């Protein structure tokens, strides 16, 4: 149970980091910081959508379009971003065409790196704490 919660926390943190980096890099990708609950809700919904959409899209691609299997992460990120932007929670807005093209790539790359690096940082911190 603890591992499940730790993985969920890492996935939420990596999703938040990916969205924040896209906000910093892309001018047409805007996080509504004035409504921080909206952003938190966006991160939670985005992370849930990512975890549900990626396996589903992978099954569909494997069955109907095997050539798309390599881009499953970016496609599921694009669909999750689209759904989060369309929800009336106001935490995230994407307006420009270039932002719609680059945002999934940036969010996917940052999320993938964070998912790899965050466990190492958390494990190091726990090991140091247990040694002290």
Short structural description:
This protein has one domain.
Describe this structure in words.
The structure is a single chain. This protein has four helices and two strands. The chain is mainly alpha-helical. It is globular and about 50 Å long. The longest helix has 35 residues. The protein has one domain.
What's the topology here?
Blueprint: H1 2-25, E1 29-31, H2 36-64, H3 72-86, E2 92-94, H4 97-131
Antiparallel strand pairs: 1-2
Helix pairs in contact: 1-2, 1-4, 2-3, 3-4
Features of this protein?
two-stranded antiparallel ribbon; globular; mainly alpha; single chain; 132 residues
- Indicate the percent of residues in helices: over 70%
Overall residue-averaged pLDDT value: 87
The 3D shape can be described as globular
State which percent range the strand residues make up: under 5%
Q: How far is the first residue's CA from the last residue's CA?
A: 25 Å
Largest sheet: 2 strands, antiparallel
Class inferred from helices and paired strands: mainly alpha
- Lateral strand order in the biggest sheet: 1-2
Spans of at least 5 consecutive residues whose pLDDT stays below 50 are none
In N-to-C order, the SSE pattern is HEHHEH
Number of domains: 1
Radius of gyration: 16 Å
Count of individual beta strands: 2
Task: Count the DSSP helices.
Answer: 4
Keywords: Membrane, Transmembrane, Transmembrane helix
Protein name: Phage holin family protein
Transmembrane segments: 38-58, 65-91, 97-123
């Amino acid at each position: 149970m603890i591992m499940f919660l730790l993985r969920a926390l890492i996935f939420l943190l990596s999703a938040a980091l990916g969205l924040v980096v896209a906000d910093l890099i892309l001018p047409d990708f805007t996080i509504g910081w004035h409504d921080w609950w909206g952003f938190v809700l966006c991160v939670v919904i985005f992370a849930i959508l990512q975890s549900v959409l990626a396996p589903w899209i992978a099954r569909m691609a494997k069955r109907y379009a095997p050539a798309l299997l390599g881009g499953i992460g970016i496609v599921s990120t694009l669909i999750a971003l689209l759904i989060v932007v369309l929800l009336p929670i106001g935490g995230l807005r994407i307006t420009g065409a270039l932002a719609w093209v680059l945002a999934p790539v940036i969010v996917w790359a940052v999320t993938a790196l964070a998912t790899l690096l965050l466990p190492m940082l958390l494990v190091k911190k726990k090991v140091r704490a247990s040694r002290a």
